[in-house]
Fold this sequence. Notes:
Elements: H1 2-20, H2 43-72, H3 80-115, H4 117-137, H5 155-169, H6 172-182, H7 184-190, H8 210-234, H9 242-274, H10 284-307, H11 314-343, H12 362-390, H13 414-420
Amino acid sequence: xxxxxxVSVQGFILLSVQAHLPQLRPPPCNMxxxxxxxxxxKGFKATIFFLALYLVALGSGCLKPNMISHGxxxxxxxxxxxxxxxxxxxxxxxxxxxVGELLALTVLVWVQTRSGMDVGFGVSAGAMAVGLAxxxxxxxxxxxxxxxxxxxTPIARVKIIISVIPIFACxxxxxxxxxxxxxxxxxxxxxxxxxLTTSFHVPPASLQAIPYVILIVLVPVYETCFVPLARKLTGxxxxxxxxxxxxxxxxxxxxxxxxxxxxxxxxxxxxxxxxELLSIFWIGPQFLIFGVSEMFTAxxxxxxxxxxxxxxxxxxxxxxxxxxxxxxxxxxxxxxSLVNKITSSSSRHGWLSDNDLNKDRLDLFYWLLAALSLLxxxxxxxxxxxxxxxxxxxxxxxxxxxxxxxxxLNFTSSKHVAADRDIL
Length: 424
């Protein structure tokens, strides 16, 4: 992780240097103005830019899943206290992630707006360097598991990967909805009254911070209030099982799109009938509901992948969580293109083809996503029943190299399988 963190730091430094030096970037221009022609970055300038982006992407893609699984590896299953606190660790890790996202969407954006992109990228590089230093400072206290060959060698591990693919696939639609909140919902806010006071306007892009604000508030409440109460009712150390948690989130996210569709219809009708702009705060509920659903689905998926994997598979399966984000955003682009193609005809435009929300039918697109989300939840219930019926108690894992006890790394047991059946 230390080496891959350096890759991200190098990527941010390269972005900062390119944004600072005029000879490494195209001349500034107004991209909104139709009269001004912007010069496209080519050759060496484009190479530097994409190299920096790929360095950041490579570092982020390798760092996140390994960081989460490395932290979870510090807990021992044979210690009841450690096993009980594992779910708390996943909640805390996601809480930290949300704090970072909120700072990036608010403080870092403010710094970039006031001081320039070069300073913003420099701050990002500095933050990564500080995080790397903190990680290295605890190197002598970590419990590290040495590599044990390919994770695909034992047949049992291949079976585990195959068995979790349907659960993984059911979270792709969830992240497709996330893509809409980061694109169309921001555009929706731009077509509304953004004035908060006579001198202050709410930037539509800042609406993306709402789910993270909700998560920062709800995750501690979930851990301190909901989990102890649910633990008494269910007897499960984490309150509810990871699969139950995923199911709650997949069901709740449907209402985010229902709220988005209702508000968009009201916004459009208000503008068409009277020319008035609806307040931007009307679209708050769709972000609020999504924040609640993400607390259940995202953390539940990470915990599920970790607990159901054998020794040596934790990082690989945790990385599948972030693959779900990627597939969700790719599906979003494909879905928009398909909707425009299907709804277009010789006499009318598609639902999303005009790039003008007062002419487009974004509300119908939201209803489509709500229907897909509900169907996805029903598919999840089916996949869940199949997954639970296909599980069997796992044999005790063999001792690791040099007599190392790897039992604490194997969370697949008949106890967890029985707990996962409770959702049905």
